[in-house]
Design brief:
Length: 144
């Protein structure tokens, strides 16, 4: 697996030790379960790569600021599991990240600070292949 786009340190910086401990520690004594956090970060990275691969070579060599934000918001939602309410900031941030990822995948948005090149065969040019001409002036003039 490639280096995840977020880490436990990133999640702590944005959401704090207390929240991560509450989400990952079932005994309420040991603190943050690093394995659970790593799993959530890996899953977030895989999901992000699935969308970015339509436009960028993945995994990205460096993590752009926006990708890191998406990764922490997605990983946080994965840690919350089904405990996050539909109108909670956790779910709203996850939904915003997914919407933005979909925009990048569709080509509506891009990652200006990404150093990953546009995926092979996807240079932004449009190509059209037409079949051979079926009708011409000559063939049409022979019709009754």
């Amino acid at each position: 697996m490639a280096t995840p786009y977020c880490s436990q340190a990133d999640l702590i910086e944005r959401f704090g030790v207390v929240e991560l401990s509450q989400l990952t520690d079932q005994t309420a004594a040991a603190g943050i379960d690093a394995g659970e956090v790593t799993k959530a970060c890996d899953e977030a990275t895989s999901l992000i790569d699935a969308y970015l691969a339509t436009r960028y070579a993945t995994p990205l060599a460096t993590t752009p600021t926006m990708v890191r934000k998406w990764a922490v918001d997605i990983a946080r939602k994965f840690l919350w599991k089904d405990r996050a309410m539909a109108d909670s900031v956790v779910t709203l941030n996850y939904d915003a990240a997914m919407s933005q990822l979909k925009d990048v995948a569709r080509g509506v948005a891009s990652l200006p600070d990404a150093d990953g090149a546009i995926a092979a065969g996807s240079n932004g040019a449009v190509s059209v292949r037409a079949s051979d001409q079926v009708f011409s002036d000559d063939t049409l003039s022979m019709m009754p």
